[in-house]
């Protein structure tokens, strides 16, 4: 490209960031001669889209250090990053920044705030912000409905859904997922049936409806729903049915559904773990050991989960057996020390008369 404009620079930066080439994107960002918030928004947006939210917040801090004033687009992107990480303190700081700089609470910004508070476990504040937004669209309503469903406020989620319909807005597929999720966790079978009958259902909706029926003990109806599906059921749908049989202690049928799941994806470690749990809960210890043995023989390894914790507006991520943290050696030593102290407390608690004065 002979002559690079701000638009062309920004497009290239966004592309590299979106596909995970963050080092290249950052290098290009620093080469842009014009000082503008636009390319910074692009790289932050790319990080959020690539689920690299921690880096998005790092870039946001760097942008402020370089005296580049964030605009409304930057606020929305960073609130999305906070939602992904569960970084409530950072989200609150951004909200205060929005208020201090008199940003108008339009649909995009308001929806991002509702979503952030809901996903960061402050559903009361999410509902408060929702009421403050002068104009709401489908995404705004969906954010509060899904947030309420996430926190087990099933009746409130259904109430907001009803208000959304009466406002004349048309729900999207995510809205319906939120409503079905609320029905599932709240045991609202009739409401779930009604909602399901009114939508154009996709696989994820079938999975959620099977979960609604299964958790409530309507196992035959859940099976019938799968048999009559116009599309082929995937692992998520069968998994919901398996979970229902497991909850209701139906080992034989649960075993049958688990075998179907294994046929679909023999390398999915979660299925083997569920298999073993099903047998363990039924006190079928040999079968539970066999399930884990088969998993090991097939070379299937459990995918480690990633956890995060926010301390002083800094988000730390870690997983099982993680050694990437620069202080990991000290952390593991400290964990060993804590474990020994806990073992001592448990041991002394079992000695009559000793544990009573342990902390006196």
UniProtKB/TrEMBL annotation:
<dbReference type="Pfam" id="PF13041">
    <property type="entry name" value="PPR_2"/>
</dbReference>
<dbReference type="InterPro" id="IPR011990">
    <property type="entry name" value="TPR-like_helical_dom_sf"/>
</dbReference>
<feature type="repeat" description="PPR">
    <location>
        <begin position="137"/>
        <end position="171"/>
    </location>
</feature>
<keyword id="KW-0677">Repeat</keyword>
<dbReference type="InterPro" id="IPR046848">
    <property type="entry name" value="E_motif"/>
</dbReference>
<dbReference type="Pfam" id="PF01535">
    <property type="entry name" value="PPR"/>
</dbReference>
<feature type="repeat" description="PPR">
    <location>
        <begin position="36"/>
        <end position="70"/>
    </location>
</feature>
<comment type="similarity">
    <text>Belongs to the PPR family. PCMP-H subfamily.</text>
</comment>
<dbReference type="Pfam" id="PF20431">
    <property type="entry name" value="E_motif"/>
</dbReference>
<dbReference type="GO" id="GO:0003729">
    <property type="term" value="F:mRNA binding"/>
</dbReference>
<protein>
    <recommendedName>
        <fullName>DYW domain-containing protein</fullName>
    </recommendedName>
</protein>
<dbReference type="GO" id="GO:0009451">
    <property type="term" value="P:RNA modification"/>
</dbReference>
<dbReference type="InterPro" id="IPR002885">
    <property type="entry name" value="PPR_rpt"/>
</dbReference>
<dbReference type="InterPro" id="IPR046960">
    <property type="entry name" value="PPR_At4g14850-like_plant"/>
</dbReference>
């Amino acid at each position: 490209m002979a002559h690079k404009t701000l638009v062309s620079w920004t497009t290239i930066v966004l592309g590299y960031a979106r596909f995970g080439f963050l080092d290249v994107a950052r290098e290009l960002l620093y080469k842009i001669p014009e000082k503008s918030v636009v390319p910074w928004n692009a790289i932050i947006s790319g990080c959020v889209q690539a689920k690299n939210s921690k880096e998005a917040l790092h870039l946001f801090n760097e942008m402020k250090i370089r005296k580049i004033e964030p605009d409304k687009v930057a606020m929305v992107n960073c609130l999305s990053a906070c939602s992904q990480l569960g970084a409530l303190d950072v989200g609150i700081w951004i909200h205060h920044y929005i208020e201090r700089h008199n940003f108008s609470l339009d649909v995009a910004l308001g929806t991002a705030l509702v979503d952030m508070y809901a996903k960061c476990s402050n559903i009361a504040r999410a509902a408060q912000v929702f009421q403050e937004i002068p104009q709401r669209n489908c995404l705004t309503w969906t954010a509060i409905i899904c947030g309420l469903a996430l926190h087990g406020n099933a009746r409130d989620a259904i109430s907001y859904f009803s208000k959304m319909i009466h406002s004349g807005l048309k729900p999207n597929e995510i809205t319906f997922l939120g409503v079905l999720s609320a029905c599932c966790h709240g045991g609202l079978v009739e409401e779930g049936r009604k909602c399901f009958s009114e939508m154009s259902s996709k696989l994820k909706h079938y999975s959620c409806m099977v979960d609604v029926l299964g958790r409530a003990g309507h196992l035959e109806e859940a099976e019938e729903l799968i048999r009559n599906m116009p599309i082929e059921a995937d692992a998520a749908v069968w998994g919901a049915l398996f979970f229902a049989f497991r909850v209701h202690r139906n080992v034989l049928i649960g075993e049958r559904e688990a075998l179907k799941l294994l046929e679909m994806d023999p390398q999915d470690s979660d299925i083997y773990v569920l298999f073993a749990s099903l047998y363990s809960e039924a006190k079928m210890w040999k079968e539970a050991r066999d399930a884990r043995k088969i998993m090991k023989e097939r070379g299937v390894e459990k995918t480690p989960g990633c956890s995060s914790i926010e301390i002083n507006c800094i988000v730390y991520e870690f997983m099982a057996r993680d050694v990437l943290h620069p202080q990991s050696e000290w952390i593991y030593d400290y964990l060993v020390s804590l474990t020994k102290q806990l073992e001592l407390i448990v041991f002394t608690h079992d000695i009559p008369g000793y544990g009573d004065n342990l902390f006196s």
